[in-house]
């Protein structure tokens, strides 16, 4: 028997790919009373809107995007795309220097001086040509340092730092350049400059380099082809994103995959013939474990027998995020149409950003907004255990300040998501490879997937599960 730990998107996907690859129904153990992990939707069908407490949209691009669309296609789930020409895809705002600023979204935009920048973006990009052209030997550095070194502090502060807040609620001064710009970093390291690297690789690079589309055989998933043709920028699942894990759960259960809820794994002991696990006080003895649970949880399970592995797992840090969902009974409360806005940390205000949900998707006669707060600065801004009222008041105060919205919302929800996003800080790639090397060295029947290892987005955790399952030669590995 193979046991999958965690029924978030990665654990469910691991069970799905186990079935596909080995025709084998695994048992999934989930600590909570529901599947989906951080994916959580609250529906208000009678009023025509939903609140998403965690993720809400998925990007269709690249191999990761294609892989998720293949899964969605196989599950026959409907999706609702935002096309690249729509305001929610095109318009990206940041709040800087006391105003909402639209980031350039066309070629002509990069030749203009637009606030908050003091010069056109093109001149900042060109700075790469005059910055140091020596080949470097850095293993890693922060994404802030890299961008500041190549393009200057303005781009690092007002473009990259808010983007990092939007993706992982983290501090660009701590997050590894390999998290988001691995390719550009490699180009710089190899050629001495990014633009130089792009040109040289066009001229002298490997022309036969093919995309790792082997995953999909001869043809890409149909839904992916459609997303390219129709220029999707992102998409949602119309009835709420938690329909995705719920549909996957139903599919797996029909194929006799056993999904046990309220079944927390508390201890893992590796034995000669496999594994002995403590699930809610009961002993279970699978041959192999695929763990998709957060690293700090897995660290506790293996601590007694493998303290060094536990310490390696504990070195991956997570942040807390406060999510405030707001519903207004007014259709067009927003003056600007966009996906939302992000706040650069240099502005030192206690919100990470706001998503304009009702601008992205139809919410009938409602304006729906989600305010994200905390992340890397949670404790600094709110202390250890803020009350929901304090979080709501802060969200409303800054909505008024930034967007002039002083109306009382009709319905509000406040959730603090503890340790919800792993931080890929400088050295993360090395940490993950040390963890996997340890497991290989001691021949532990343990495979790792999920948000802590191979990317923090939904696409990443699904592909992480697929790659890890496909790397198993047999279930006795
Ligand atoms: C606020 C927020 C917004 C986000 N927005 C987006 C977005 O718009 N788009 C996007 O692509 N991504 C987004 N993400 C990221 C996305 O949510 C994650 O990539 C994804 O949900 C992680 O899935 P997972 O299965 O790896 O982990 P989890 O969702 O953490 O699942 C792990 C599961 O393991 C269970 N578990 C824990 N300990 C044990 C144990 N000891 N035994 C058994 N079970 C256990 C947990 O209960 C949980 O169900 C967002 C994340 C957050 C927090």
UniProtKB/TrEMBL annotation:
Cofactor binding notes: Binds 1 FAD per subunit.
EC code: 1.3.3.4
Cofactor: FAD
Pathway given in the UniProt record: Porphyrin-containing compound metabolism; protoporphyrin-IX biosynthesis; protoporphyrin-IX from protoporphyrinogen-IX: step 1/1
Catalytic activity field: protoporphyrinogen IX + 3 O2 = protoporphyrin IX + 3 H2O2
GO cellular component terms attached to this protein's record: mitochondrial inner membrane
Subcellular location: Mitochondrion inner membrane
Chief subcellular location: mitochondrion
GO biological process: protoporphyrinogen IX biosynthetic process
Enzyme class, UniProt record, top EC level: oxidoreductase
UniProt cross-references to Pfam families, sorted A to Z: Amino_oxidase (PF01593)
Domain annotation Amine oxidase: ranges: 9-469
Protein family according to the UniProt entry: Belongs to the protoporphyrinogen/coproporphyrinogen oxidase family. Protoporphyrinogen oxidase subfamily.
Function: Catalyzes the 6-electron oxidation of protoporphyrinogen-IX to form protoporphyrin-IX.
Name of the protein described by the UniProt record: Protoporphyrinogen oxidase
Species this chain originates from: Bactrocera dorsalis (Oriental fruit fly)
């Amino acid at each position: 028997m193979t046991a999958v730990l965690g029924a978030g998107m990665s654990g469910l996907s691991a069970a799905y790919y186990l079935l596909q690859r080995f025709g084998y129904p695994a048992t999934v153990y989930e600590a909570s009373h529901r599947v989906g992990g951080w994916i959580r939707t609250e529906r208000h069908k009678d009023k025509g809107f939903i609140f998403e407490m965690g993720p809400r949209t998925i990007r269709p691009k690249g191999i990761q995007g294609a892989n998720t669309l293949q899964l969605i296609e196989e599950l026959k789930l409907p999706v609702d795309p935002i096309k690249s020409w729509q305001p929610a895809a095109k318009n990206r705002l940041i709040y800087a220097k006391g105003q909402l600023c639209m980031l350039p979204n066309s070629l002509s935009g990069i030749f203009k001086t637009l606030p908050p920048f003091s010069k056109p973006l093109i001149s900042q990009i060109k700075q790469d040509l005059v910055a140091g052209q020596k080949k470097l030997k850095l293993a890693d550095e922060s994404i802030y340092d890299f961008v500041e070194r190549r393009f200057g502090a303005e781009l690092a502060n007002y473009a990259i730092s808010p983007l990092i807040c939007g993706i992982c609620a983290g501090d660009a001064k701590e997050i590894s350049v390999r998290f988001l710009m691995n390719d550009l970093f490699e180009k710089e390291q190899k050629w001495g400059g990014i633009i130089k690297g792009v040109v040289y690789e066009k001229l002298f690079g490997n022309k036969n380099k093919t995309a790792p589309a082997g995953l999909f055989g001869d043809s890409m998933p149909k839904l992916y082809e459609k997303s390219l043709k129709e220029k999707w920028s992102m998409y949602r699942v119309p009835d709420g994103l938690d329909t995705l894990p719920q549909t996957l759960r139903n599919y797996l259960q029909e194929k006799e995959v056993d999904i046990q809820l309220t079944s927390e794994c508390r201890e893992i002991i590796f034995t000669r013939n496999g594994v002995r696990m403590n699930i809610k006080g009961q002993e279970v003895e699978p041959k192999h474990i695929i763990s998709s649970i957060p690293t700090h949880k897995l660290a506790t399970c293996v601590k007694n027998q493998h303290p060094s592995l536990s310490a390696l797992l504990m070195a991956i840090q997570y942040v807390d995020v406060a999510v405030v969902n707001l519903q207004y009974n007014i259709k067009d409360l927003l003056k600007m149409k966009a996906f939302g806005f992000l706040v650069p940390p240099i502005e030192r205000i206690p919100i990470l950003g706001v998503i304009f949900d009702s601008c992205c998707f139809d919410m009938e006669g409602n304006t729906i907004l989600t305010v994200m707060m905390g992340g890397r600065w949670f404790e600094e801004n709110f202390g250890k255990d803020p009350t929901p009222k304090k979080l709501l008041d802060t969200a409303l105060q800054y909505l008024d300040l930034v967007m002039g919205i002083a109306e009382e919302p009709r319905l509000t929800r406040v959730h603090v998501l503890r340790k919800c996003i792993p931080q890929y800080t400088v050295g993360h790639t090395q940490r993950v490879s040390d963890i996997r090397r340890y497991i290989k060295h001691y021949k532990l029947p343990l495979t790792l997937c999920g948000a802590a290892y191979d990317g923090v987005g939904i696409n990443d955790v699904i592909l992480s599960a697929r790659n890890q399952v496909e790397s198993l030669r047999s279930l006795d590995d």
